[in-house]
Write a structure and sequence with these properties.
Layout: H1 2-30, H2 42-67, H3 94-110, H4 113-142, H5 144-152, H6 174-179
Helix pairs in contact: 1-3, 2-3, 3-4, 4-5
């Protein structure tokens, strides 16, 4: 039952937040009359490819959050563990990168400069949210483990994973003190 509830919460989050950010805002506020092309040219194929990659990465990251982290991407129900698996080994914010890739794909596919403006605004807002809120909240929640992760994995530009170095807990537990 717990797994089913976690799946329902993740589905609700996906419909509400990415559905709003990726669907309603760019297609209602920024490109009011999007037109499906009659024939596809290279920008349409490029946009469709980016869209597919972005959606695949977004759903994969959400699955990692749900299965390994036992939580959702929502700030009010975060994962219980620091994510260091899959794309999180390469970059700290792959889910945001997936969202930005999807919006870029919409801009390329629809050949819309209005959506490009939205992409720039969204990228700035996401960066500010990560720097001003999310990283400090994760530092408070996970302490030295998150600091190690932050030091080893870049925020935005993916890089080949480095070997994991584990931090020692700040205070040894009672068993290790008694055996010493």
């Amino acid at each position: 039952m717990k797994t089913l509830w976690l799946l329902i919460k993740n589905l609700l989050f996906t419909v509400c937040v990415p559905g709003f950010v990726l669907g309603w805002v760019p297609l209602h506020w920024f490109e009011r009359y999007p037109r499906w092309p009659e024939t596809w040219s290279w920008p349409h194929w490029l946009g469709a490819g980016f869209f597919g990659l972005g959606v695949t990465l977004l759903l994969y990251c959400q699955g990692v959050f749900m299965i390994r982290g036992q939580g959702t991407p929502a700030p009010f129900d975060p994962p219980r563990k620091v994510m260091r698996r899959g794309p999180y080994k390469w970059v700290r914010n792959p889910m945001y990168l997936a969202v930005l890739a999807i919006v870029a794909a919409e801009a390329v596919f629809l050949q819309s400069w209005h959506i490009v403006v939205y992409w720039v605004c969204l990228a700035c807002a996401v960066h500010l949210m990560v720097v001003l809120y999310e990283e400090s909240a994760l530092r408070m929640r996970f302490g030295a483990v998150y600091e190690d992760y932050r030091r080893d994995v870049p925020r935005w530009l993916p890089r080949k994973p480095r070997p994991t170095l584990a931090s020692a807990t700040p205070f040894p537990d009672k068993k290790s003190r008694d055996s010493a």
